[in-house]
Amino acid sequence: MIHRKRPRGIARLAAILGGALIAALSAPAGPAQAVEFAVAPGRVFVDFSSGRGQGRLEITNRSGSDMALTIGGVDFALNAQNRVVRTPSTAASFSNWLVVNPSALDVPSGQTRTVRFAVRPLAEPRTGEYKAMITFDQANAGQIENGAVSFGVSLGVPVYATYGEVERIATLHGVSASGGRLTFDISSTGTAHARLSGYWAAFSSGYPGDARVREAMAATAPQAALAALGARASGRLPSTGVFPGERRRLSTGEGVGTSGTLFLSGTLGDAPIDRRMSY
Predict the structure, then answer these.
(1) Which DSSP category does 27 fall into?
(2) Which end of the chain is more exposed for a tag (fewer CB within 10 A), N or C?
(3) Taking a C-beta distance cutoff of 8 angstroms, is the pair 188, 167 a contact?
(4) What is the pTM of this model?
C-alpha cells in the first residue's frame, strides 16, 4: 500500500508498515500520531481466468471525526529506487478494467465500511498478470471541525490479477554488503511478478552449520533463535515484487558488516531458496 502525504500544513500522520500495508513512502514531518484511516488487505490477488474476478476491501476510520473518501483506480510501476509511482493510463490500461463500487464513501468515526471491486475485461486478455492500484483519497481534507484541521491522506492498494496459468520465475544473481546492509540482485523472467519470502541470517564467524540455522529459522521466534546461535544479524528477506522483464536491487538489514557467511531460507517466486553463501 502506498501512503502519500498531502501538502496541507504540518502533517500529523504516521507512516504505516506491516501486514495490512505494503510500505510507507514518506515519513511525517511532525510527531508520529495515529493514521487517519486504514485499508485491508493491503495487497489483493485475483484470478479472472473465467472472464471475471472480484474482491472486497475494508476501510476503517481511525480519526475522531467523520471522513469522506473518493475512490478510483490508477496504473503504477516501481521506479529505480523501488518506490511506487503512478504511470499514465491508456485506453488499454488495466485500471480501465477495474470497476469499483462505490466511487465515493462516507465513513463515520471509528467505523468500518466495505468497498467491492470487479475485473471486467474490455478486450481479449492474454495469459499473464495485470496490475493496478485502487486509491483512497480523503475528500474532506482541509475542513475545520471542533477546532481541528483534517490534513488528508491518500492510500493505495495494489491489485494483481492473473489470467490463465502464470509462472513466477526469478534469479538471484548475488548478494552484496555495503554500509552494514545487504543488497539482493534479482531478475524476473516469468509471466507474473516474483518476490522473496523467508529469512536471512548473517554470521561473522563460528558458523554453526546449515541444519542448525535452518532449524532456528523455522522456530516460533526465528530472530531470537538465530541470535542464540551467534548470528550477527538476521531478518525477513526483502519482499518487494520484481515484475517480469525487470532486474532490481533490494536492500535490507542492519549491522551485517562488510563480509561474512549468509544463509537464506524461503522462496523466490515459485521456487524454494535454501542457500549458504559468502558476502
Answers:
(1) -
(2) C
(3) no
(4) 0.81
What are 275's three cell numbers?
542457500
Residue 47 bridge partners (DSSP): 162
d(CA 267, CA 237): 9
What is the widest separation between alpha-carbon atoms in the chain? 62
Q: What is the pLDDT of residues 216-265, one digit of tens each?
A: 999 999 999 999 999 999 999 999 999 999 999 999 999 999 999 999 99
CB-count burial class (<10 Å; 0-12, 13-18, 19+) for 231: buried
Q: What is the pLDDT of residues 19-28, one digit of tens each?
A: 233 332 222 3
- The arrangement of strands across the sheet holding 196-203 comes to 233-236, 196-203, 261-268, 271-278
Provide the β-strand partners of residue 45. 160
Sign, Cα dihedral of 239, 241, 247, 248: negative
